[in-house]
């Protein structure tokens, strides 16, 4: 039985697109720093990382789709922070953003990583953006590299 299991170090040069939401930028900028740190620590030069800033989380899927369709990237990392407020807006945004990001990956056949925090409060977001719960941007960067390598291995039957 053949098993595919990729590693985290790029097996070839890779280019990574990142979509980051400006809304809650004090959180998303930390996620972006974590993602860039994860990528560069694992061999991706900063020149091979391109970032597109969008107004908010709801706009992430469209920008991710454009990046994925461009053919310039091996993976797209989506970063944002949606924090529950006093209205039902939170549920709508979280549901549509997660569905949209998943759909982009399926349609493009490209790894599209979900690094959008969906938190009950600001404290949870801060914890996931580089404090005691780690940095989800960093985690997405590693998942992106693993998925790029895995897709390559499957395509080439390695």
Automatic annotation (TrEMBL):
Binding site for 5-amino-6-(D-ribitylamino)uracil: 23, 57-59, 81-83, 114
Keyword Transcription: no
Annotated InterPro entries: LS, LS/RS, LS/RS_sf
EC number: 2.5.1.78
Gene Ontology cellular component annotations, sorted alphabetically: cytosol; riboflavin synthase complex
Active site positions: 89
List of residues binding (2S)-2-hydroxy-3-oxobutyl phosphate: 86-87, 128
GO biological process, any: riboflavin biosynthetic process
Listed pathway(s): Cofactor biosynthesis; riboflavin biosynthesis; riboflavin from 2-hydroxy-3-oxobutyl phosphate and 5-amino-6-(D-ribitylamino)uracil: step 1/2
Pfam family, one: DMRL_synthase
Molecular function terms, GO-annotated: 6,7-dimethyl-8-ribityllumazine synthase activity
Keywords assigned by UniProt, alphabetized: Riboflavin biosynthesis, Transferase
Catalyzed reactions: (2S)-2-hydroxy-3-oxobutyl phosphate + 5-amino-6-(D-ribitylamino)uracil = 6,7-dimethyl-8-(1-D-ribityl)lumazine + phosphate + 2 H2O + H(+)
Keyword Transferase set for record: yes
Alphabetical list of PANTHER family matching this protein: 6,7-DIMETHYL-8-RIBITYLLUMAZINE SYNTHASE (PTHR21058:SF0), 6,7-DIMETHYL-8-RIBITYLLUMAZINE SYNTHASE DMRL SYNTHASE LUMAZINE SYNTHASE (PTHR21058)
Cited NCBIfam families: lumazine-synth, PRK00061.1-4
Similarity annotation: Belongs to the DMRL synthase family.
Role summary: Catalyzes the formation of 6,7-dimethyl-8-ribityllumazine by condensation of 5-amino-6-(D-ribitylamino)uracil with 3,4-dihydroxy-2-butanone 4-phosphate. This is the penultimate step in the biosynthesis of riboflavin.
Listed name of the protein: 6,7-dimethyl-8-ribityllumazine synthase
Natural source organism: Candidatus Avidehalobacter gallistercoris
Protein's gene: ribH
């Amino acid at each position: 039985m053949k098993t595919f299991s990729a590693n985290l170090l790029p097996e070839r040069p890779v280019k990574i697109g990142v979509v980051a939401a400006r809304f809650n930028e004090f959180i998303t900028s930390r996620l972006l720093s974590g993602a860039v740190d994860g990528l560069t620590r694992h061999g991706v030069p900063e020149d091979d990382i391109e970032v597109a800033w969008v107004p908010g989380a709801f706009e992430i899927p469209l920008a991710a789709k454009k990046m994925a369709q461009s053919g310039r990237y091996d993976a797209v990392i989506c970063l944002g922070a949606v924090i529950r407020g006093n209205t039902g807006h939170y549920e709508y945004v979280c549901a549509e953003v997660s569905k949209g990001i998943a759909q982009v990956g399926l349609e493009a056949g490209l790894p599209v990583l979900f690094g959008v925090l969906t938190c009950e409060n600001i404290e949870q977001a801060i914890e996931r953006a580089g404090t005691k719960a780690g940095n989800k941007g960093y985690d997405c960067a590693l998942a992106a590299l693993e998925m790029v390598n895995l897709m390559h291995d499957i395509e080439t039957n390695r």
